[in-house]
């Protein structure tokens, strides 16, 4: 099926985005997308976002279209779009996009790729979520092979796949996914900055003079939080001058509270509250091995907080062990506890790593990242149009 959806790059670009959720602050993906919306507005790029979850109409900062969906059994806060494109095809055809950008390999992303193929519209994707790595946490090992097979087909039908860290990009290459381009995420260094440190913050949450060990993220098993709980228990038996603070929500919160009874569960935070928590803590502890990037790691670094991460997944593309943070061995809670203990006992090392983290984070600007992405959009559209015209002549 072909149509008269012609590409005209003499007018402002029109980009259609497809994503699982547009609920502000729901996860790292949505936080990136709302920064993207600001950049689109600034550059005058027309856009529309298709999603299964939208904020209230009054809170929408750009054009958004709700696609019918059903809830995901494991995570009630996420939803699967109904298969096919009948619920967005008419609207998307009227919008006449120059390019389609998918941000999730879900049913909605799949339908968008198929639409692009049928109507000769280039499609790009961002690899935000490392689904194959989830198989370990849900004991469904066949899921890993099925995931790679599905992702290989989906992403190889795209003209470009943006990958935020080089270790993940290497893994995708090894699994036969092509058209990859390294494009990291940035950080807002006005929002995340050491100046937000508060001398009263620890008193306010009831930990007084203790060291604050901070985790920020969704409370789900695939963030490797069993390892965090195990390290917590080892450290609690070793020293009484520290406290674990967990910021975020998720389906395993009650189970974690049972495993970490003296930890402080703050719930979801944003804005100044989150900035203050980062800047006022002493270490950032993030054991996840399933990240494609880890926005929270970069936010912690920009705030002057030294990250302790596992040496696997997206963290390896952000942290330089011994320079901007420290790595621990994956699935080794004793090593995580020992590394935390060592850093708390060596304040000079902690201060040096913090300064180098701040310097690194300040170089990761959203402005340059989006400039590179929009330039790539234009190149892809032009090349796609040239190939399309060549096919017509042939």
Instruction: State the shape.
Output: elongated
Strand order of the largest sheet: 3-2-1-6-7-8-9
Mean pLDDT: 91
Approximate strand percentage: 15-25%
* Helix count from the secondary structure assignment: 14
Main pleated-sheet profile: 7 strands, parallel
CATH level 1 class label of the largest domain? Alpha Beta
CATH superfamily of the largest domain: Glycogen Phosphorylase B
Helix content: 40-55%
What is the C-alpha radius of gyration, as a whole number of Å? Answer: 22 Å
| Unreliable spans | 1-7
How does the helix and strand content classify structurally? alpha/beta
The CATH architecture of the largest domain can be given as: 3-Layer(aba) Sandwich
Question: How is the CATH topology of the largest domain named?
Answer: Rossmann fold
C-alpha termini separation = 19 Å
What would your notes on this structure say?
The chain has 394 residues and is α/β, with parallel strands linked by helices. The protein has two domains: 14-186 and 365-393, Rossmann fold, CATH 3.40.50; 194-362, 3-Layer(aba) Sandwich (Rossmann fold). 41% of the residues lie in helices and 16% in strands. The chain has helices spanning 28-43, 89-95, 107-118, 135-138, 142-156, 166-174, 201-205, 225-238, 253-259, 271-280, 295-302, 333-344, 347-362, 366-393; strands at 14-19, 46-51, 64-66, 69-71, 79-81, 99-102, 123-126, 160-163, 180-182, 211-216, 242-247, 264-267, 283-286, 307-310, 326-328. The strands form three sheets. A seven-stranded parallel β-sheet has the order 3-2-1-6-7-8-9, with helices on both faces. Helix 11 crosses helix 13 (347-362). The longest helix is centred in the C-terminal third of the chain and has 28 residues, at 366-393. It is elongated and about 75 Å long. The two termini are 19 Å apart. The model is unreliable at 1-7 (pLDDT under 50).
């Amino acid at each position: 099926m072909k149509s008269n959806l012609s590409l005209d790059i003499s007018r402002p670009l029109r980009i259609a985005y497809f994503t699982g959720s547009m609920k502000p602050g729901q996860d790292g993906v949505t936080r990136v997308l709302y920064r993207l919306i600001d950049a689109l507005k600034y550059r005058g790029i027309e856009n529309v976002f298709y999603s299964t979850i939208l904020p209230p109409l009054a809170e929408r900062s750009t054009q958004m279209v709700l696609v019918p969906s059903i809830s995901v059994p494991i995570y009630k806060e996420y939803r699967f779009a109904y298969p096919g494109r009948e619920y967005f095809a008419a609207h998307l055809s009227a919008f006449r996009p120059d390019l389609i950008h998918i941000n999730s390999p879900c049913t909605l992303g799949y339908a968008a790729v198929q639409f692009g193929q049928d109507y000769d519209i280039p499609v790009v994707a961002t690899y935000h979520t490392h689904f194959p790595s989830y198989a370990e946490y849900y004991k469904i090992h066949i899921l890993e092979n099925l995931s790679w097979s599905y992702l290989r087909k989906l992403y190889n039908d795209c003209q470009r796949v943006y990958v935020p860290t080089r270790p993940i990009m290497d893994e995708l290459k090894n699994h036969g996914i092509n058209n990859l381009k390294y494009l990291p995420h940035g950080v807002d260094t006005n929002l995340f900055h050491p100046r937000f440190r508060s001398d009263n913050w620890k008193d306010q949450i009831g930990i007084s003079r203790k060291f604050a060990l901070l985790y920020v993220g969704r409370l789900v098993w695939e963030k490797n939080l069993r390892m965090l709980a195990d390290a917590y228990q080892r450290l609690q038996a070793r020293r009484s001058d520290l406290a674990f603070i967990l910021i975020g929500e998720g389906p395993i919160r009650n189970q974690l509270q049972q495993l970490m009874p003296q930890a402080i569960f703050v719930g979801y935070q944003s804005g100044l509250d989150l900035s203050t928590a980062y800047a006022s803590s002493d270490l950032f502890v993030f054991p996840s091995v399933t990240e494609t990037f880890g926005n929270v790691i970069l936010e912690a670094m920009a705030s002057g907080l030294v990250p302790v991460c596992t040496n696997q997944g997206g963290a390896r593309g952000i942290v330089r062990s011994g320079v901007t943070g420290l790595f621990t061995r994956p699935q080794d809670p004793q090593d995580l506890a020992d590394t935390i203990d060592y850093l708390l006992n060596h304040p000079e090392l902690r201060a040096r790593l913090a300064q180098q983290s701040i310097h690194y984070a300040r170089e990761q600007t959203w402005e340059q990242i989006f400039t590179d992405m929009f330039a790539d959009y234009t190149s892809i559209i032009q090349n796609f149009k040239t190939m399309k015209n060549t096919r017509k002549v042939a």
